[in-house]
Amino acid sequence: MKTLRSHRGRVETTILVLVLICVLSSSMATERPSFELAKGINGLDKIVLRESRSRSAEVYLYGGHVTSWKNENGEELLYLSSKAIFKPPKPIRGGIPLCFPQFSNYGPVESHGFARNRIWEVDANPPPLPSNSSSYAFVDLILRPTEDDLKMWPNNFEFRMRVALGTEGELTLTSRIRNTNSDGRPFTFTFAYHTYFSVSDISEVRVEGLETLDYLDKLKNRERFTEQGDAITFESEIDKIYLSTPTKIAILDHEKKRTFVVRKEGLADAVVWNPWDKKSKKISDLGDEDYKHMLCVEAAAIERPIMLKPGEEWKGRLELSAVPSSYSSGQLDPKKVLQ
């Protein structure tokens, strides 16, 4: 009898251990990066990230380009041009283009650099990156220079980027750029996440967090001014580079009662751009009316270019979240999201 009970006890213990292994395996599986590779427009490869409550993001390998970020209601939070061209070598208009190794025409390379019109690869074995425990799904991408790139900008580099979708729907892009020159040469670069936000009506939008700061006005030969208003509002074309900006910026959409919160690290500057009506008509891959429903607020490193010696690495992080706006007598309280 004792032998039977002993055998039964061992069997029960074995079953319990197997159940625990299954539970732990399932738990570990949910912590692994979760994404799918799919075909996008014109057959271009794209990565799809999904969160448990129907939130999602899409990243094209062409340009390492985030083109979509949707909330739990399926609403698109990024703006994609109605005339966007998904055909290399033309960059994609909208979403989050990557400006590297040059912002705008601030140097010898093509405007906004070449990272946004190169084919990136999925990075299967990236170096360790302290992960955000709230990231539900992410993908690691990598870009190395082509022979043509080296002719244009003679520097070897590794550009790694993680795109992550958090459990609260926040979208995070973490870029790591390393100098891999073998001849001891340092290099410098400028950089921007050229984010296009989707807004209801540009005339009903305001940007908080950049007031009283100095900026370079690209519409006035980059002359330096100081922002005077309590907030940035929009009545005409704007193209300004705000300098030494805070780590948080808020974009308040009155009509949608929604606030975008931009959090950034390693990116001292912020570009605010909207082409308005006349400029829009001159941009071939932007619809004439698109300016009404888009706003670019770009986390950037422009005024002081980043310098890397061989072996050194720079990291720039962007986190985007969308939260309900709170009203008080028709006015928004940005302090609640800028704290």
What does this structure look like?
Helix content is 14%, strand content 40%. By secondary structure, it is mainly β. A hairpin with a 5-residue loop joins strand 13 and strand 14 (223-226).
Q: Report the total helices.
A: 4
Q: Kindly estimate the percentage of residues that lie in beta strands according to DSSP.
A: 35-45%
- Alpha-beta content class: mainly beta
Distance between the termini: 69 Å
The coarse silhouette is globular
Q: How many strand segments?
A: 23
If strands are numbered along the chain, what order do they take across the biggest sheet? 6-7-8-9-21-18-17-12-15
Tell me, rounded to a whole number, the average pLDDT.
88
The biggest beta sheet is recorded as: 9 strands, antiparallel
Fraction in helix: 10-25%
Radius of gyration computed on alpha carbons: 23 Å
pLDDT < 50 stretches: 1-7, 11-31, 327-332
H and E string: HEEEEEEEHEEEEEEEEEEEEHEEEEH
Topology:
Layout: H1 2-31, E1 35-39, E2 45-50, E3 56-60, E4 65-70, E5 98-99, E6 121-122, E7 135-143, H2 147-152, E8 157-166, E9 171-179, E10 187-193, E11 196-198, E12 205-208, E13 214-217, E14 223-226, E15 232-233, E16 238-242, E17 248-253, E18 258-265, E19 269-274, H3 276-282, E20 294-308, E21 313-324, E22 327-328, E23 331-332, H4 335-338
Antiparallel strand pairs: 1-2, 2-3, 3-4, 5-10, 6-7, 7-8, 8-9, 9-21, 10-20, 11-20, 12-15, 12-17, 13-14, 13-16, 16-19, 17-18, 18-21, 19-20, 22-23
